[in-house]
Write a structure and sequence with these properties.
220 residues, eight-stranded antiparallel β-sheet, seven-stranded antiparallel β-sheet
Length: 220
């Protein structure tokens, strides 16, 4: 190879830009019911709260063979008030845009069979929730505003009592994509709440629902 050709090739190589790979988004596992704690312990990584009416929520770690690690978080006050919505809200992260996945098992008993993923939580009067209702066979996105529920969108869904399901929601700015058991259900837009907030789980009345951990991928 001639000196002129070698010099030309070196010049080309020098001018090529460096190729870098963007880091993958980190998945944060927010542990709510560690397998290392005894059954009956308080929740590991979230704070109890209530939206609506009624007494305080009471959350404990219980055994659940259908969920990862064999443990679950359960609300156990058993207050049969359909206008009472127990919450357990993680102290971190604080984000606007995220993809969140939650596994749960809704068992028989009680007047409600609800599981939900809380998004952009500011306080018990102001947040979004993706709610799975096993009694109604429906998944919907709700905006909680001044403590009142407003349905933004919903779809029929196959939800069985005594079986594990997973809810996944991807919230980016005003867009929300909802999936159940890995299959997309619906997409919808809403501009009602755009501020960053916290994440958590949502129940209703005396639902005997057992919650796994929250898996959160921040997209901000």
């Amino acid at each position: 190879m001639g000196a002129v050709l070698r010099a030309a090739l070196i010049g080309v190589l020098v001018l090529l830009p460096a190729v870098t790979c963007a880091p993958a988004s980190e998945v944060l596992r927010k542990v709510l019911s560690s397998p290392l704690v005894e059954e009956g312990s308080d929740p590991d990584g979230c704070d109890p709260a209530v939206s609506g009416f009624g007494g305080p929520s009471v959350w404990h770690v219980r055994l659940e063979r259908f969920l990862l690690d064999g443990k679950a978080l359960v609300e156990e006050s058993h207050e049969a008030n359909l206008n009472r919505f127990p919450l357990c809200v993680a102290d971190r992260p604080l984000a606007k845009n995220a993809e969140v996945e939650l596994s749960f098992v809704a068992h028989e008993g009680g007047i409600a069979h609800i599981a939900g993923v809380v998004l952009r939580f500011a306080d018990p009067q102001d947040f979004y929730v993706v709610e799975a209702d096993a009694s109604a066979g429906r998944v919907r996105l709700l905006r909680i505003l001044n403590g009142e529920r407003h349905e933004i969108a919903g779809r029929a869904a196959a939800l069985a009592l005594g079986a594990a399901h997973s809810l996944r929601t991807k919230a980016v700015d005003e867009s929300f994509g909802i999936a159940l058991d890995g299959k997309p259900l619906f997409e919808v837009s809403d501009r009602g709440l755009t501020a960053p907030g916290r994440f958590g789980v949502w129940s209703r009345a005396d639902s005997e629902t057992r919650f796994g951990d929250l898996f959160i991928t921040i997209l901000d």
